[in-house]
């Protein structure tokens, strides 16, 4: 059974940084892709970033490019999302998801419960 647990969300001020963690259990991630998605109130879910666990290839949405960094710790089945220069529009519930296909434009197979990130002064 695949389990995905996100952590690290919270309330931060604009301009600050935050790192989210995604812990995955129940599968070996070597051949999978980990994606971060977010959903703000009243908006559709948006793909933020993804990483190929095996190859380390990364992809970022234009809205976060240059500010966010995705990384992985293969030995610990952990994936991180470093979020820098946070803006109020980054406020959302952030979800970690796992899939076999690289990219953000499709539905992922496995999802976590999400962690709230609020950027406000």
Q: Care to describe what's here?
A:
The chain starts with a strand and ends with a strand. A hairpin with a 6-residue loop joins strand 4 (33-39) and strand 5 (46-52). The mean pLDDT is 95. The strands form two sheets. Strands 2, 4, 5, 6, 9, 10 and 11 form a seven-stranded mixed β-sheet that branches. A four-stranded antiparallel β-sheet has the order 1-3-8-7, with no helix packed on it. With 121 residues, it is mostly beta strands. It contains no helices and eleven strands. The protein is globular and about 40 Å long.
Residue-averaged pLDDT, rounded? Answer: 95
Task: Please compute the radius of gyration using only Cα atoms.
Answer: 13 Å
Structural class: mainly beta
> How many E-type strands?
11
Q: What ranges have pLDDT less than 50 throughout 5 or more consecutive residues?
A: none
Order of helices and strands: EEEEEEEEEEE
Proportion of helical residues: under 10%
Give the helix tally. 0
Shape category: globular
Main sheet overview = 7 strands, mixed
Range of strand content: over 45%
Ends: how far apart?
40 Å
């Amino acid at each position: 059974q695949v389990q995905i647990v996100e952590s690290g969300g919270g309330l931060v001020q604009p301009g600050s940084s935050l790192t989210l963690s995604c812990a995955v259990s129940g599968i070996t991630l070597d051949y999978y892709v980990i994606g971060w998605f977010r959903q703000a109130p009243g908006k559709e879910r948006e793909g933020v970033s993804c990483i190929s666990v095996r190859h380390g290839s990364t992809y970022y949405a234009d809205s976060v490019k240059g500010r966010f960094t995705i990384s992985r710790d293969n030995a610990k089945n952990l994936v991180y999302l470093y979020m820098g220069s946070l803006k109020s529009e980054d406020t959302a519930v952030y979800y970690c998801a796992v899939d076999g296909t690289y990219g953000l434009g499709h539905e992922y197979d496995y999802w976590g419960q999400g962690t709230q990130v609020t950027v406000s002064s």
